[in-house]
Amino acid sequence: MNTDNPIPELSGGLRRSLAGIAGDGGLLTDPADCWPYGYDNSRRHALPQAVMFATDESQVVALVALCRDAGIPLTARGRGTGTTGATVPDRGGIVLSFERMDSILRILPNDRLAIVQPGVLNAQLQQAVGDLGFFWPPDPTSAATCTIGGNLAYNSAGPRAVKYGTARESTLGLRVVTGRGESLRTGVMTTKGVVGYDLTRLVIGSEGTLALITEATLKLTPLPETKRTLRATYGDIHSAAAAVSAIMAQPIIPCALEFMDGSAIEMVRHYAEFDLPDGAGAVLMIELDGSAACIEESVSAIGEVARNPGLLELRRAESKEEIAALWKTRKALSPTLRHIAPKKINEDVVVPVSRMGEFIEGLERLSRTTGIRIVNFGHAGNGNIHVNLLIDPDDPDEVARAAECLDAVFALVLSLDGTLSGEHGVGIEKRDFVGQELDPAALALMTEIKRCFDPAGILNVGKGFPQG
Amino acid sequence: MNTDNPIPELSGGLRRSLAGIAGDGGLLTDPADCWPYGYDNSRRHALPQAVMFATDESQVVALVALCRDAGIPLTARGRGTGTTGATVPDRGGIVLSFERMDSILRILPNDRLAIVQPGVLNAQLQQAVGDLGFFWPPDPTSAATCTIGGNLAYNSAGPRAVKYGTARESTLGLRVVTGRGESLRTGVMTTKGVVGYDLTRLVIGSEGTLALITEATLKLTPLPETKRTLRATYGDIHSAAAAVSAIMAQPIIPCALEFMDGSAIEMVRHYAEFDLPDGAGAVLMIELDGSAACIEESVSAIGEVARNPGLLELRRAESKEEIAALWKTRKALSPTLRHIAPKKINEDVVVPVSRMGEFIEGLERLSRTTGIRIVNFGHAGNGNIHVNLLIDPDDPDEVARAAECLDAVFALVLSLDGTLSGEHGVGIEKRDFVGQELDPAALALMTEIKRCFDPAGILNVGKGFPQG
């Protein structure tokens, strides 16, 4: 982190060029003004030399050309809700904020698509298309404040991904500006298209290292008529994991299939209102959507497959109040976690659903051997588990043990055919672990692809994977 | 096409090296033996200098290294069912047939995935996973004979894509050998993963120009309990197109939504058993799948939205015989087409569903002005239309007018925000039209990406887009 090193000021000439591109009120250079554009939700911070707000693509093209010619690092930013430091300008330079490119350009209900600028908030889009009977599947927890551009840069997901996929499955095409300063379209306006290489999905999830997204054509999904919520409590994680596999192997896929493990339940027991049966070792929250005429049949079918010898209780909710009551234990988890361990390490790994029981057991073992308390919850239907290490960051011994523990967690994930990140991305946080998952030949190819898009090496250099 | 030019023989040294890699019975060099590996379903042919059959990845690595060092063109091939010439070795060199790498390595029902070699037939996979209650969504017409490797190379689809997506949405990861001769894994074994760039989808649809797929981890979908078939006949294409938009804007998505236009109906009327009502100007075949308890409700809901002032008749089928009867007119189309115009030009374009009426009207206008008979059918839910120009290839005047007409068809597609290929790919056939759809900057990037994967320029050079 560069916060302790004063960043050299921009030369007068560069500053004038930037101001010319940005126009009135479009440029910040005072460090106090730039400060809030130096952090994200990773607790990292680095001060940029300037912050520019673009209002149209031509400014993005001009800014990239300027940075390319002057060799200035350029970091694109939505609303800074990422958790891995991907938008923290740790090499200084310019932050390009897309918050003013926030127009929904077109919604075409008959073609099930919306064309938006990158600064549109996820919730703003959902509201606009919801009025027409649609939604856009990615639903990160930060939906109220995060931008579509950010969702695409990270390939964001959320609970609904289990049924509806991630950003990659719900985007038809993009308009981008590469690190060369060239504007180009990727993809199509249709739900099929095989002309040329798939640059759309290459840019999605690339964390602003290849190109800056200036427009996106999003595939919309029709809103289901209705929804039901079930809560299944099991005596142990193996029974819960077996239920997840059974649910995912039949044709009625829930629109959310979330879980909490025993340590998460144990923690909430002492800090919040608690209505789980005795002996609860794992909880699944199951949401089903569909037509009003069929939802009951779906509830019965899922109830059947969720039932196994380890099931302690299966409850269902219909009214808003009942749904809120069922979610209470799950919703108590995050505040309780923040209360107990304000500086917890929140990881985001994935294992095949059939290996979840094995994984949680391994974590319990690691917790015992390292003395680090570990609490797990997440998107069970995808095997996407948020592993929380509860540590006191002021205890250097605990910090050292946590680092060891984290190494072991990642090794365990990879030994189970898993991946180191399901939806939070890599950014700075996980960059040095990526080599454990990806083949050297794959990393070398990615470095070369990065060079094709950004030969001057200005776009968010050093994020996502170890680069030169 | 190189068929008229004798291809230089391989040197003795190269031939020995090839034989060493291929092992007993793994190499063909006699032109008569090589001949059938020189064509696909595009009516193009070029004789390769040799055909090698790999049985494991190490042979692929060795062959690529040999071709790379000697500068020999290398064309990978499944079963040659493609329609665009992508597997025709028009620059000579070696054809690598994957037909002997045909093992289903693992099926993991609890993780909803299958790991297969590229030479597995689509139908063989469907049979194996069907026995466990799953299917793999891509269902090209050639399913009985085409390979998974080919399906991935082309990003193949078929009728089910309207509900279940294409190969890109149903593949978790690959094992590939790049043109550098390096073997690497892409993607994950899970349904989520955001570590590194998305090389999986970059390779899918790249028509063997970037890397050779030696193994694929496929995402399976649970088989629906039951299916229903509807046939909706409309007075004109606009009413049918409006029904398609209405169907696609509500939450019950059909698992097939196929159409035939008025000229297709007109053609079948005179050559096959015919049971459409008078005045039929367009037909939709609608298939719905789901649980037995809910299928009736889906049929009613779709029946409602399919109904508009242009609807002439809505019929439904349940028994196998009734289903066969409803499909009779649609199924008569291909044989009739072959009978009338054995050398028809079969195009594969896509327009947004809301523009389909406009598109078909434009085609009717083009047919009148050019005197070329045009018959259209296809996957209406995706706006994916197979445009058939019925010509006599021995009439040079008609051939010239057809070429003009085709130019105009492509221009019309692009003016309606469509794409030049939905599922057949580009290969040789459409290579020279790609520049009309893609930005020059996008094409330049693709050329550079090609160079990253294949710096020696040996893998299927010249296919997919104009290359050096």
Automatic annotation (TrEMBL), chains A, B:
UniProt KW keywords: FAD, Flavoprotein, Oxidoreductase
PROSITE patterns noted in UniProt: FAD_PCMH
Keyword NAD attached: no
Required cofactor names: FAD
InterPro entries: FAD-bd_oxidored_4_C, FAD-bd_PCMH, FAD-bd_PCMH-like_sf, FAD-bd_PCMH_sub1, FAD-bd_PCMH_sub2, FAD-linked_Oxase-like_C, FAD-linked_OxidoTrans_Type4, Oxid_FAD_bind_N
Molecular-function GO term, any one: oxidoreductase activity
Segments forming domain FAD-binding PCMH-type: 44-223
Family statement drawn from the similarity comment of this UniProt entry: Belongs to the FAD-binding oxidoreductase/transferase type 4 family.
The name this protein goes by in its record: Fe-S protein
Species of the source: Imhoffiella purpurea
